[in-house]
Each structure stands twice: as structure tokens, then as C-alpha cells.
Amino acid sequence: RLPPTDTKHVRVDHAIEKGAKIPPFYDPLVAKVIAWDVDRPQAIDRLMAALSQFCVEGIKTTIPTNIAILMSDRYASGELHTGFIQELFSDRSVLDDLCKPLWPCM
Question: Is 14 helix (H, G, I), strand (E, B) or coil?
């Protein structure tokens, strides 16, 4: 299930039809979610809200990884470098949180 989109601040690009089944050899980019707002913190909040409303069953997604990135202080500050992802996921607690369901599919 795709999130309802606030077309002023969130755009979801996809080619998914209601009830469609994604084959086992799927392109990992099932949907692209873009968020905008007047500043970085508000755009991050909008993107996290949109991602948390997805309900995807039967395949693994990068949604939990993306939410972990968006929740990090370093990402929020915009102080990023090429080693950011490696540093973020070297913290075992971040990895443990990715194994927990972030939301139920209803």
C-alpha cells in the first residue's frame, strides 16, 4: 500500500497498480519518494511520515534503512561525508533497530 500523498510536499513515483504482485526478480527501486518543505528538518519529517505509511508485503525494502538514516543526528545536521553510511551502520544499536518492525501492515 502506498502512502496518501500530500502533493504540495511529497511525491511518490512508481509503476505499481493496486493489487499488483511484485515478481521475485524485482527492480529494487519499486517506488521513489521525494519530500520538500521550507527547511531540512520539516522536509525530513515529511519524508519519514510518508515512508512510515508504506505497507509492503512479500519483499524486503530499504524503508527501515532509509528511516534509520533520516533519524540520525548527522543526517539531520547535513554534515555528511562519503563514510557516513559506514559509520552509521557500524553502530550495532542501529542495526538491531532495523530488524524490528517499524509499523504493522493493516
Answer: strand
Which residue, among 30, 52, 46, has the nearest Cα to 103 in the 3D structure?
Answer: 52
What letter represents residue 75's amino acid?
Answer: Y
* CA dihedral of 28, 38, 42, 60, whole degrees rounded to 10: 0
Instruction: Please check whether residue 2 is in contact with residue 54, taking contact to mean a CB–CB distance below 8 angstroms.
Output: yes
Tell me the pTM. 0.76
- Three-state DSSP at 51 gives helix
1, 9, 25 from 98: Cα distances, Å: 20, 26, 23
List C-alpha distances in Å: 80 to 41, 55, 83.
15, 29, 8
Q: What is the pLDDT of residues 30-81, one digit of tens each?
A: 888 999 999 999 999 999 999 988 877 777 788 888 998 999 999 999 999 9
